[in-house]
Amino acid sequence: MATDTPYTSPPVDTNFEPAGSLSPEAAAGQAKELAEALNYHNHRYYVEVAPAVSDEVYDALFRRLQELEATFPELQSETSPTQRVGAAPVDELSRIEHQAPMLSLNSSLEVSEVSDFHRFIERNSDGRSFRYVVEPKLDGLSVEIVYRDGRFSYGATRGDGRVGEDISRNLKTIPAIPLELRAEGDPPAFLAVRGEIFMLKSGFRELNRRRTERGDEPFANPRNAAAGTVRQLDPKNTAGKPLDIFFYDILASDRTDFDSHTQVLDLFPDWGLKTNPLNEVCTSVDELSAYRDRLAESREELDYEIDGIVIKIDSYEFREDLGYRNRSPRWALAWKFPPRKETSRVEDIVVQVGRTGILTPVALLDPVNIGGATVSRATLHNEDEVLRKDVRVGDRVRVIRAGDVIPEVSEVVDREASGRGEPFAMPESCPVCGTPVEREGAYYFCPAGLSCPAQLTGRLIHFVSREAMDIENLGEKNITQLVNRGIIRTIADLYYLDVGDLEALDGFAEKSARNVYEAIQGSKTRPLNHFIYALGIRHAGAHVAEVLARHFGSIEALEDAPVDELSTISDIGGQTAESIHAFFAEEENRRILARMRRAGVEPQPLDEGPSAGPLSGMTFVLTGSLEHYTRTEARRQIEERGGKVTSSVSSATDYVVAGADPGSKLDQARKKGTPVITEEEFTALLAGRSPDAGR
Ligand code: IVH
């Protein structure tokens, strides 16, 4: 949340007297007020997207409630705002029957079918006037959530429409799902609602980036990621993920005085249930078409995936008259966007070399428009996949573009084409630099490292990135220019650029060139772990880089490390050890490192013991997600100031920094009485101020 948000709530007093000195009655009263305040602020933040207080105030209230519940255990309740995380893992998800069948929708692709639908409705309207509610069709997963007496009771996946899986514990970690409905809105005592859970596209990209870095398979698209995340057995794996929800239906309720969908959609936010702001009302096919076109156009700009629109009759009475057919209502229709799937002809299969040297077969296609984007290349993943699908030059193939992911060839649709090419085979040497390729599992890679020009652009992009050498304003476009113009031939050349070289780039003026120049110079003394990570050695992600930096203390010591030594270091597996060793055994890589040294690149060793710096000797534990820092960034900031980060709370821990949706470490800290600080307080600490300042 931006710190300059104009908060609308009057100043909140967060100076509390010691919890132990309260009477049980006073504590109960205060806990109730706190829970109400937290629910209100949660609603303002997640549902209205108009926060009334700063995160700092929210956190202070949250911690006070935690403190009261710890001191007076009888105050603990299942729907307390403190209970979003921390439920124990289960062995399997139990099945749960829905309050009412979760129906599905008939769907169409063509406007002619939408016209047919409209005519059918008109014929059955007996001259009554009627209107539609139109909504984006969210590409997520449908859930049922049941509230009893205004409290979250349970939530379930759609399953087969009649019985789903109980995912209550996971749903409770999603901040946009209220644990208590807003009493002010007078919600029904019993309410079963339906909504769609989805993952934000931005969060999905970040999640996949981290998964790939850890060596986990990336999710294919945000929907799979959302589905995988809410079906976790351990709610800790759901907590903190960028999941959100829009509610769109009442499945069952003890209140029966609802007349229309618009009425329900208006009531939902009063009860604390988030609805999609893009929902609208339409009366004609022209209006439906215009709405659909508008959404199709803005589709890419939305931070969540939609795959069409849903058209629903507004009046409940008319809905009942129209009825159902095959478990779908006759009163609704999904008008889907054309699938982002087309067929095209494979013109060629080339092999592309990525940043870490992995060789990826790519189909060059007769350009085809898929969902608004022209696609002329699609990945074939790896040799085994090409052979399994038997894709060859000349074949007609189906190409899928799913959201943000790279287009892929899913199957061959016609292999009768004359002039079918030979079966695919990986080249024996790197198509770019000619070095003999090596195989590892399903993948082939070029072991030439930094001297392979194809790897250079990718590696440079990685090298300058924030968690690596953090060289600002030297983006992909500039790097591509520098490589394509032959100004940079190895990573070391970066440190031999002068202001003039940069000024010659498109879009650069003297000032911007000087800024980038300064940024490059400034990166010469980055911490050693950042430098090692920046080299982009296969299997050496941020964590491995840090382990290496601590173990070896200098790049020279690491360069000469025998593979046996590498593989005995804890957290470094055999494959990783081999890869590191191979990287430094490569003559060209050693030359490049020496050239960087000559240019004055001097990565700084990580201090083990107390060192100079405002945080020297201090130990931190990070939990939950911070708004302004990634984990790596927070760790770096601490370490740059002489502090240390450990993964568990112990007597040596000075501070636990608690972000959003903190994990069990917060409980450990509470038990041990370790000071817990918020992100704001952490920022203050980094800036050299006391974390208590301003409290
Ligand atoms: S209404 C009886 N509204 O689409 C009608 N569904 O193909 C119940 N979906 O399983 C569904 N956005 O997961 C409705 N605004 C929306 C929707 C929506 C996405 C999904 C839902 C359903 C599927 C049907």
Gross morphology: globular
Write down the Rg.
29 Å
Termini separation comes to 19 Å
Number of strands: 24
Sum up the structure in keywords.
23 helices, D-amino Acid Aminotransferase, Chain A, domain 1, DNA polymerase, domain 1, binds 2-(butylsulfanyl)adenosine, 34% helix, OB fold (Dihydrolipoamide Acetyltransferase, E2P), 695 residues, alpha+beta, 7-stranded antiparallel β-sheet
In short:
The protein has 695 residues and is of the alpha+beta class.
Structure write-up:
The chain is an alpha+beta fold. The chain folds into four domains: 141 residues, OB fold (Dihydrolipoamide Acetyltransferase, E2P); 242 residues, DNA ligase/mRNA capping enzyme (D-amino Acid Aminotransferase, Chain A, domain 1); 160 residues, Orthogonal Bundle (DNA polymerase, domain 1); 76 residues, Rossmann fold, CATH 3.40.50. The protein is built from 23 helices and 24 strands. The strands form six sheets. Strands 14, 15, 16, 17, 18, 19 and 20 form a seven-stranded antiparallel sheet that branches. Strands 2-13-10-3-9 form a five-stranded mixed sheet. Strands 5-4-7-8 form a four-stranded antiparallel sheet. β14 and β15 form a beta hairpin. α1 runs antiparallel to α2, α11 packs antiparallel against α12 and α15 crosses α16. The two termini are 19 Å apart. The model has no long low-confidence stretch (mean pLDDT 88). 2-(butylsulfanyl)adenosine binds next to β3, β8 and β13.
